[in-house]
Amino acid sequence: MKLFDVYSLFDVIPERAKGCRIWDVDGKEYLDLYGGHAVISVGHAHPHYVESLTDQLNKIGFYSNSVVNLLQEELAQKLGKLCGYADYSLFLDNSGAESNENALKLASFHTGKDRVIAFHKSFHGRTSGAVAVTDNPKIQSPFNSNHKVTFCNLNDAQAVEDELKKGDVAAIIIEGIQGCGGINVPQTYFMQQLRKLCDVYNAVFIVDEVQSGYGRSGKFFAHQWYDVKPDIITTAKGMGNGFPIGGVLISPKFTAVKGMLGTTFGGNYLAMAAAIAVVDIIGEAGLVDNALKVGQYLMDNMPKSPLIKEVRGKGLMIGLEFHKSIAEIRKTLLFREHIFTGVAGQNMIRLLPPLTLTLDEADIFLDAFREVLAEFEEKEETKQPTLF
User: What is the spatial distance between Cα 28 and Cα 30, in angstroms, rounded to a whole number?
Assistant: First the structure.
């Protein structure tokens, strides 16, 4: 049997990792400024994280949600206190896509409506409902088109209200900061208008914090920059620091009904051990504040270049938009400078490092980036026609 060939792979084989560093099978060291799609929040192989998972595996690794799991209750209490939503309820599942599926289902149950408003350049996952509210036709099969979804432009409150007036909208779903769509930060006024409009038209306000949450933006959740309180918050990625887990934070306005949501693996003992360790480390090490500090340092010291169109983001969620494709620049950073970065589309480099990134590590990237930019600027200059 062979692997189903759906991934574009770089010729790098990681073997071990620690903090913000990765070593491949040849012993070559890399600086990780991508965190495996924003998943590594507290750093690779953090001692407390490793110890927590190991100890739990020696006790019990799995049983179903038909029994009491005290670790789930411990996580809910600690997470609620740390993120500021102690009065919300927590439903646990396995991924960001599943969290968004459950959020959409819960909204439809609650309102009795069947249409959803999402936004252009959004990404909410690859399962059926999640991909239906994702603005990417390349990953939508004909089956996904059965869902009732209307896409509006980000920051266009009037277009949203025009749709809400039709009376059949169950929910608005929006990312705290659009990740895959290009690190697009919603306007504060717009997010506040969405909150008000949902109240007026009896729609559920869902904020997807799968990528932007867990301290990445310099707040625990990115929507906290806009001073709004969603009805439902979805999270995953950094929640488990690499162990598959997702969560749905649910306002007290919702009533739980036995059997309305469910999962086999969600909230299992190992996932809980991982998630509790992450919450403990983030709180004790002040990693939300560190993300804000180091992210701002990166933004303030990013080299100016005619190749770069714009630098945007918050905290350690940064997008570097170029005028042209970044494929060769990214390859140079990876294979020569040994720095992992991500992308958004063809023209953007995304930086989503572990929240433990230090100022010294930020300087390593900045120095290497300046050198690479200078080389590519020179190449661009030689391409320009000479006028006589």
Answer: 7
Handedness of CA 128, 129, 132, 138 (dihedral sign): negative
Please tell me whether the overall predicted TM-score, pTM, comes out greater than 0.90 for this model.
yes
- Taking only the tens place, the pLDDT of each residue in 23-49 is 999 999 999 999 999 999 999 999 999
As a whole number of angstroms, the distance between CA 228 and CA 258 comes to 30
CA–CA separation, 284 and 84 (whole Å): 16
Interatomic CA distance for residues 148 and 325, integer angstroms: 34
How many of the other CB atoms lie within 10 Å of CB of 353? Answer: 31
* Residue 311 DSSP SS3: strand
Two tokens, residue 304: 């100016």
Element of type H or E holding 380: helix 359-383
Q: Say if CB 75 and CB 279 are below 8 A apart.
A: yes
**Band (381; pLDDT cuts 50, 70, 90):** confident
The Cα–Cα gap between 324 and 379 comes to: 13
CA distances from 69 to 16, 20, 110, 339 (A): 32, 32, 27, 40
83 touches 278 (CB < 8 A):
no
Is-contact 365 339, C-beta < 8 A?
yes
3-state SS of 214-279? CCCCCCCCHHHHCCCCCCEEEECHHHCCCCCCEEEEECCCCCCCCCCCCCCCCCCHHHHHHHHHHH
- Residue 167 CA to residue 323 CA, distance in Å, equals 42
User: Helix H segments across 19-169?
Assistant: 35-38, 47-57, 70-83, 96-111, 128-132, 157-164
pLDDT at 144: 81
How many other C-beta atoms can be found within 10 angstroms of the C-beta atom of residue 27? 8
Q: What SS3 state is found at 304?
A: coil
Assess contact for 32 and 352: CB atoms under 8 A.
Answer: no
Burial class (CB in 10 A: 0-12, 13-18, 19+), 319: buried
Burial of 270 (0-12, 13-18, 19+ CB in 10 A): buried
Dist CA 231 CA 172 (whole Å): 10
Q: Are 103 and 172 in contact (CB under 8 A)?
A: no
